[in-house]
Write a structure and sequence with these properties.
By secondary structure, the chain is an alpha+beta fold. The chain contains nine helices and 13 strands. The chain is globular, with a radius of gyration of 22 Å. Bound molecules: magnesium ion.
Length: 353
């Protein structure tokens, strides 16, 4: 009997860290969900605590609107980094994957896999960050799941978010729709997320003031579609960076894309980090940057609309869709030469998002 922890110490352990009991599906699981997640996410769709959220479909969409549906898992390390954390990243990333399709993001799910021993306070901070980010974006987290795995079976915390949104009728965006003469625009500084997370890992002894650009971009995508209704395509330049995204457009549209290094919005610090580590900023992950392909005639209206928004202040026209070798992306360099910008081969930075 004496091997059993006393009631008090057991309760304290329960409060401070996540234990396997929290994943057992019983009272501890319910307490964890109620106390950490439901309390923070708090909305009418989650409140009944059924196995699924129930949404009135006719209230979501009109005639010929389409449902946008996406999912993503987040395994970033460290869990907290300058400019964000895994929770904010998960909510923003899923909102952005909906928004770049022209959708208005509406509802998210949140599933977490927690490593036994994670500080309860850490989990609480992540849940709070998710709730605040979702609320600010007008999105509700309406269903979810928690699992706890033994020490070593995962690293602290993994988060999966699924999102749904509605694409209004008439919006036709696609990676294969770029046309000769179109302009390529981005909404600001590239590579901040990748460089900031790398520096935050601490093992490179890099001292920078860099912050992740992690942000929900649904207002920017909406502003773009209003200002430039002919927009062909948008995508958030996450893992694989701008280079990978542009290669996908060039391949799918059967065109060449030519960008100009002198036009790329890049912080000196990001260039510096890349130089030291032998990385290419074109491949660094972003979590608050979109590239869009717009008809030349709408490019200045598109840029003006972005520059009007705090998340688009540094927006730039970085290049053009041209004839030439289909599927190829090239860049005019600072020294006047031209180089090929390939797809990312392999993984430049693991666990960046
Ligand atoms: Mg994406």
């Amino acid at each position: 009997m004496n091997q059993m922890p006393t009631r008090r110490s057991f309760a304290q352990v329960l409060l401070r860290t996540v234990t396997l009991a929290h994943g057992g599906g019983g009272k501890a699981t319910k307490d964890l969900i109620d106390d950490v997640f439901a309390r923070e996410f708090d909305n009418e769709f989650l409140e009944p605590m059924e196995d699924q959220a129930r949404l009135v479909m006719s209230a979501l969409a009109g005639q010929n609107d389409r449902l946008a549906f996406t999912t993503d898992s987040y395994v970033v390390t460290p869990l907290f980094f300058p400019g964000g954390d895994i929770g904010k990243l998960a909510v923003c990333g899923t909102i952005n994957d909906l928004a770049v399709g022209g959708a208005k993001p509406l509802f998210l799910s949140c599933a977490v896999i927690i490593e036994e021993g994670l500080e309860m306070e850490t989990l609480r901070l992540v849940a709070r960050s998710m709730a605040a980010t979702a609320r600010a974006a007008g999105v509700a987290i309406v269903t979810g799941d928690t699992k706890v795995v033994p020490r070593g079976a995962c690293d602290k915390l993994f988060v999966t978010t699924t999102g749904i949104g509605v694409i209004p009728a008439g919006r036709e965006l696609g990676v294969g729709r770029a046309e000769i003469g179109d302009r390529v625009i981005v909404n600001g500084m590239l590579g901040d997320h990748g460089a900031a997370v790398l520096a935050a890992r601490g093992d490179l002894a890099l001292e920078t003031a860099l912050e992740s650009d992690c942000a929900a971009l649904h207002e920017l995508t909406e502003a773009l579609l209003q200002a430039a209704p002919g927009t062909r395509f948008m995508r958030d330049a996450t893992r694989g960076g701008l280079a990978t995204l542009l290669n996908e457009v060039a391949a799918a549209s059967g065109v060449m894309i030519e960008i100009d290094d002198r036009r790329l919005p890049l912080r000196e610090e990001v260039r510096g980090v890349c130089e030291i580590l032998g990385l290419d900023p074109l491949y660094l992950a972003n979590e608050g940057k979109i590239a869009a392909v717009v008809p030349a005639g709408e490019a200045s209206a598109a840029l003006a609309a972005w520059k009007d928004h705090p998340l688009g202040r540094d927006a730039a026209d970085i290049g053009v869709v041209t004839t030439g070798e289909a599927g190829r992306v090239t860049m005019r360099t600072l020294f006047g030469g031209t180089r090929i910008v390939d797809m990312l081969v392999g993984e430049q930075l693991p666990r960046i998002c």
